[in-house]
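Known limitations

Structure tokens in this collection are predictions and should be treated as such. Users comparing against experimental data should check residue numbering before alignment. To illustrate the layout, the record for Glycosyltransferase involved in cell wall biosynthesis is reproduced below. The input appears on top and the generated tokens appear beneath it.
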Amino acid sequence: MRVGLIRANARPMEAGTSRVAAELAALGHDVRIFECRGSGPAAGDEVFTESGYAVHRVSPPAPQGQGPAGRFVAQLAGVGRRLADRWSSGWVPDVVHGHYWLGGLAAATAARGSGLPMVQTFYSVGSAQRRLGKPDACLGERIAMERVLTRAADVTVAQSPDEADELTRLGAPRASVALIPSGVDTAMFQPDGEAEARTGGMERIVSVGLGPGHGQDHLIRALRYVPGAELVIIGDAGGDGHGDVVRALGELARRSRVEDRVRIVGAVPHERMARWYRSADVVACTPRTAPSGAVPVEAMACGVPVVGYALGGIAESVVDEVTGRLVKPGDVRATGSALRELMSRKVQRTAFGDAAVDRVRCRYTWERTASALEAVYERLLTPQAVPA
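Generated tokens:
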């Protein structure tokens, strides 16, 4: 099977797309990534990787006299048209797979122009990012384009049941939504390895994400119920509001009388996150929305139990009383109680951590993700029987 994966200027998603490509190639498929970016090797270059897939860089058309969002959308549609022209002769994929909404714009144009089936993975959708309060000047344009993409794709991939519901609200037919969680790099995220140093001999709770929608205010208030533990918050609010977010959380910590046990370390490179997970006794996840559940899966892969809100990808990945604890979203007291209970029971934490590693290795590997995608592609390419 020939598979064309399309991504465009979405750096956080590049590693995942590359892993999908590598695993599909390992299954024997002819896989090529088509990407649009303004830096790196010249557009048009073809790079063959040691993992068995090729990367093609496609140049965007010259900018037109539109606003920033409209200009970017037009450029990506132009990339799609160039891909359709390229596929009219020579190598042509059997199926096109757009990654993130940006890659999806190019993928939809290319697939329509070539008459090819299309799969779309968003990883996150704009409506969910809006609830998290993330700054994005193009958010309105993004949500509008995501509505178009859910209708253009033959299959839309969801990371969790909550995201599946979100996609159907955007317009995707329910029968066309496939639930396929993204994998985790179990070589990088594993129990063995270096860990960040502890401070003051305190037990440690780690939480990832900074901003109104990540629920760090809930955790700071819950920390009153967990004596002797520190809360380490990892993340970057982004934009000009970063300092305001940090100051607001610091003020909340002072009012809650836990300021000496709250530490905000800012952004951490993804390759160093395993060190922070391994340094924790518990990882806490309390966002308003969690379509993918990447943080709890990475933490569990490192052998760390998770206390999180029972929603989205968190509820999908964490098994209550087996790999951690799930509590009602927004319930600060229940969150504090669950954290205090786990902090006081080392044997239970170890048992939860062991079960968490087993769950990740059985369900959340990139090999499993690629196999599930392979089944979706094959279903799209299999002629449907016509009723007699």
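For this record: Residues 68-87 form the longest helix (20 residues). The chain has two domains: 2-183+366-381, 203-363. Please report discrepancies through the issue tracker.
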